[in-house]
Design brief:
Length: 290
């Protein structure tokens, strides 16, 4: 089996992977990702014990125990480009032998759950409520750098999405579904719907401060879109990249978001910190039992 070169798989002097600065032994197979590095300690404060704390750039990792479950919480920072780093490095930590620099024969499937914040695109999904993304629909471009495919239903949905949103010619959207073994546990207390992932917070999410938009009706078009029983519930900046790369690498992924802004009713949460805390509590309670 061919060795992966030092320039491609970068391992530091501690035996840890380049950006995350985490060694294979320091990572659990159930992983919570959060965008905000400050949110890592808000998750790990609920653990019964924390055995590992690592920090490099925006990537903070705490690994510990919640009951009988070993969990790592990792911050990704903002955006799909950071997810490219985090998902590839998490996978390398479990599926590449660092001593021989070869892919292991027996691959490990990780459970990866995002605890994030998001904007709602539906009037009936109010601020402070929770959404579990059934799909990540990317209007970023990350997945196009990898060989990937969509099934016939996904292709039909994407075709209708492009026609409806009139994003054709500017972007090539992609879609990937949540890990079904995780999604089934997040029904009570969670709205479900398609989570759209954008490559920015302002223009790519239809926000106008001083600049005009190339597609001023984008928000309405996302809100109105439906395909069969699917509709778009919310948007943010990581889910499609997690679902897309997670599926290609064989991991079970689920993105849970608390709604901090409702873009239809134009409301922002009065206490988004409390909303995040509530999502962390509910999410961990369920994860501990899976
Ligand atoms: C934008 O404010 C950030 O918040 C959302 C978006 O996806 C983006 O990362 O998620 P996090 O709160 O997890 O960072
Ligand atoms: N995160 C986003 O990306 N968008 C929002 O509107 C709120 C949180």
């Amino acid at each position: 089996m061919s060795q992966i070169a030092e320039s491609e798989l970068i391992i530091n002097a501690r035996g840890a992977i380049y950006h995350l600065d985490v060694t294979p032994e320091e990572l659990a197979t159930t992983i919570i990702t959060v965008g905000d590095p400050g949110r890592v300690k808000e998750v790990s404060k609920h653990f019964d014990s924390v055995e590992v704390k690592r920090e490099h750039r925006e990537f903070i990792t705490h690994t510990g125990w919640l009951g009988k479950k070993r969990i790592s919480v990792v911050s990704t920072g903002i955006g799909p480009d950071n997810i490219d780093i985090v998902l590839n490095e998490l996978d390398a930590l479990v599926n590449i032998d660092f001593a021989t620099r070869t892919i292991k024969n027996n691959l490990t499937s990780l459970q990866i759950l995002r605890f994030g914040t998001s904007g709602s695109l539906q009037q009936d999904i109010p601020v402070d409520s929770f959404v579990a993304g059934t799909h990540g629909l990317g209007i970023d471009n990350l997945l196009h750098y990898y060989r990937h495919d969509n099934n016939d239903e996904e292709k039909a949905l994407l075709q209708q999405f492009v026609a409806h949103t009139q994003l054709d010619g500017t972007f090539s959207p992609y879609i990937a579904s949540a890990g079904s073994s995780l999604l089934k546990h997040f029904v009570n207390g969670f709205h479900q719907g398609i989570t759209v992932t954008c490559p920015g917070f302002y223009g790519p999410q239809g926000r106008v401060l001083r600049l005009g938009l190339s597609n001023p009706r984008l928000i309405e078009r996302l809100t109105e879109f439906n395909y069969g029983h699917y509709r778009i519930s919310n948007f943010e900046m990581e889910t499609s990249a997690i679902y897309g790369l997670g599926r290609l690498l064989g991991h079970q992924c689920l993105s849970l978001n608390v709604i901090v802004a409702n873009r239809v009713s134009k409301q922002f949460s009065k206490d988004s910190g409390l909303g995040v805390e509530n999502l962390i509590r509910k999410g961990l309670e369920i994860v501990a039992g899976i």
